[in-house]
């Protein structure tokens, strides 16, 4: 089992999650983060920290696609452990449906 970052992180990227993870298993893309499922120890402390409620346990239904996306990009994107400012328009995108279309495969800055 692992926790998974899902659609509502896209273009919100508040980054509250990275500071609480005891094993530093968040990786940063241009407009979202992912969790490395091989490193996540299922502690669950990140889930309530996410203002966008984008972090879910992979035991929830219909998350296979997001789990695969997390696993893939955790290998390609840089590790991130320090919170930075969220995008200026993060609030405008919070909760918007269909954000998958906004996903960027480009890497983020990392630490
Ligand atoms: S706190 Fe939530 S919205 Fe922010 S980067 Fe982490 S998963 Fe994404
Ligand atoms: S569940 Fe724990 S180990 Fe997994 S990403 Fe969240 S804080 Fe890190």
Automatic annotation (TrEMBL):
Cofactors: [4Fe-4S] cluster; [3Fe-4S] cluster
The UniProt record lists the keyword Metal-binding: yes
Basic and acidic residues bias: start-end ranges: 82-94
Keywords: 3Fe-4S, 4Fe-4S, Electron transport, Iron, Iron-sulfur, Metal-binding, Repeat, Transport
Occurrences of domain 4Fe-4S ferredoxin-type (ranges): 1-30, 31-60
Listed Pfam families: DUF3470 (PF11953), Fer4 (PF00037)
Region (Disordered): 82-111
Taxonomy, superkingdom: Bacteria
Entry's Gene Ontology molecular function annotations: 3 iron, 4 sulfur cluster binding; 4 iron, 4 sulfur cluster binding; electron transfer activity; metal ion binding
InterPro entries: 4Fe4S_Fe-S-bd (IPR017896), 4Fe4S_Fe_S_CS (IPR017900), 7Fe_ferredoxin (IPR000813), Fd_C (IPR022569), FdxA (IPR054829), RnfB_subfamily (IPR050294)
Keyword Transport applies: yes
Polar residues compositional bias, start-end: 102-111
Role noted for this protein: Ferredoxins are iron-sulfur proteins that transfer electrons in a wide variety of metabolic reactions.
Matching PANTHER family: FERREDOXIN, OXIDOREDUCTASE
Protein name per Swiss-Prot or TrEMBL: Ferredoxin
Source organism (scientific name): Blastochloris viridis (Rhodopseudomonas viridis)
Lineage, highest ranks first: Bacteria, Pseudomonadati, Pseudomonadota, Alphaproteobacteria, Hyphomicrobiales
């Amino acid at each position: 089992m692992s926790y998974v970052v899902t659609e509502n992180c896209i273009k919100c990227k508040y980054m509250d999650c990275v500071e609480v993870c005891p094993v530093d298993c968040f990786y940063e893309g241009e407009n979202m983060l992912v969790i490395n499922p091989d490193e996540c120890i299922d502690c669950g402390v990140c889930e309530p920290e996410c203002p966008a409620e984008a972090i879910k346990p992979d035991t929830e239904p219909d998350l296979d696609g997001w789990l695969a996306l997390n696993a893939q990009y955790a290998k390609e994107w840089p590790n991130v452990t320090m919170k930075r400012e969220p995008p200026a328009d993060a609030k405008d995108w919070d909760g918007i449906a269909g954000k998958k279309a906004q996903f960027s495969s480009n890497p983020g800055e990392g630490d």
